[in-house]
């Protein structure tokens, strides 16, 4: 796909995710792989339901802007480290849903475990509900380089990881194509909501 097509994928993802309430206002950021050593990301501070073709910029995989005058998201490094981690990753989505935010604050452990949900099969590499999906939770940090340095060892030790949470902040997930990343956001959101409902019932 060329840059225009990839930008359009980001725009349409923003409309979808904003419409579902998973990327309110200027929160969140999205990206696609532009080439082997470049990514196309949303610029900082744009409303994700109203993105246009000029609201993306190219960066190298160190997170440096390749387009003077355009400021990348503060969290660009969390995207580009995923592209460096696995060459097959073609899209990364970071969302800010209420369910992800609340569940990550309620969970005192450093990870969530989804088990025996049929929808786990929506994740790449999962073929049966008779499995566990481990989702790490990293404490929020405004120092993104420091946060990325905490994320990388987990990724290296868990090559099957399909996404992670930042506590009180939101979700990162990815896939070979934008459609794969969107499918995983939907699966995560369903599972987050199930877990919250289970908690509300069992803790009464």
TrEMBL record:
Query: Residue ranges of the Class II aldolase/adducin N-terminal domain?
Result: 8-196
* Catalytic activity of the protein: 5-(methylsulfanyl)-D-ribulose 1-phosphate = 5-methylsulfanyl-2,3-dioxopentyl phosphate + H2O
Q: Name one GO cellular component term.
A: cytoplasm
Q: What EC number(s) does the entry state?
A: 4.2.1.109
One Pfam family cited in the UniProt record for this chain? Aldolase_II
Could you tell me what this protein does?
Catalyzes the dehydration of methylthioribulose-1-phosphate (MTRu-1-P) into 2,3-diketo-5-methylthiopentyl-1-phosphate (DK-MTP-1-P).
* Name of the protein in its database record: Methylthioribulose-1-phosphate dehydratase
Q: What is the lineage of its organism?
A: Bacteria, Pseudomonadati, Pseudomonadota, Gammaproteobacteria, Pseudomonadales
**Gene name of the record:** mtnB
